[in-house]
Every structure is written in C-alpha cells, then in structure tokens.
Amino acid sequence: MIKSLDQQGFTYLTALMVIMVTGVMLGATGQAWQTIMKREREEELLFRGQQYRNAIERWYKPRPGQHVATPLRDLKDLLQDPRSLTTVRYLRRLYEDPLTGKEWTVIRDPSRGISGVASASAEKPFKTGGFPEELKEFAGKERYSEWVFLYNPGGPGAKPAASPSAAVKTGNSTR
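Now predict its structure.
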C-alpha cells in the first residue's frame, strides 16, 4: 500500500495546530487569572489600610482619665497598648502590604507620631473611581503608593498633619 504525497505530514501539522491553539488559550486564561489576583490584592489593600487607619484613630481618641494623646511611635503598639495596665488592642495583628508583601510605608507627623500608612507599590491601580465616602480622595490616583490611609483628627475637610510626600519608610519598627 502506497501513501499519496498529499497526506504526508498531515498528522504532524494537526498536532502543531492543537498545541498552538492550546497555548493561546492557556495564555488568555493566565492573563485573566493575573487580573483577578491583582484586583483581589487591591481589595485587600483597601481593607488592610482601613484597618490601620481605624486603629490609629482609636489610638488617638482620648480614653477615660487620659488628658493628652500620647504619640504613636511604633505600629507594634497597636497590638497591645503599652499605656494601659489592661490589655487594649487596636489591631489583631500587623498586616503586611498585600501588593509588595513587605512592610507598609509609615506616615509620620513630627509632633504627633505615626498618623497613617501607605503602600510602597508604584504599580498603576485598576480602581480609579467609585470609592466609598471615606476613601474618595483615592479617585484618580496614578499609583498605589498615592493611596494614603491617613488619620486626620480634624475631619475630612481639615488639612492633614503630614502629607504623603513627608512619608518616612520605616515599616513597623521605630527608627
């Protein structure tokens, strides 16, 4: 039995075509998965940043018998307040920056101590609008590092005590 010249290599070309189509489909799936993961890390950044901002706010709110707010010098103090004889926790644990996997950029005010945190990531965010009221200042920001979770004791209309440009990259330690 003699094969015709027209059929030679047909199986090889079919196998190459199947491999090529599979590769393209896997590439598209990988891109979609990467986008999903980045959006989830972005949501986690918003959650963790809000946790820090709320904890810093609770630190500075006067407690019974306390007349002067003590400056927050270290994020570790949010785990257990050293000013109190009883156990007072503002955070359950110190969170790392979900985008970088490292410590947060700590925003310090020279007179008040730590007033906020920000991500160290210079990536461009997916979310550029539609933020809740307490995060409306994040709209239109070009980098995650511009999303500053700052406690502002004067309220939303007051000038922040420390600007993001005055951030000190010290992470969770006192330096």
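The chain has one domain: 8-166.
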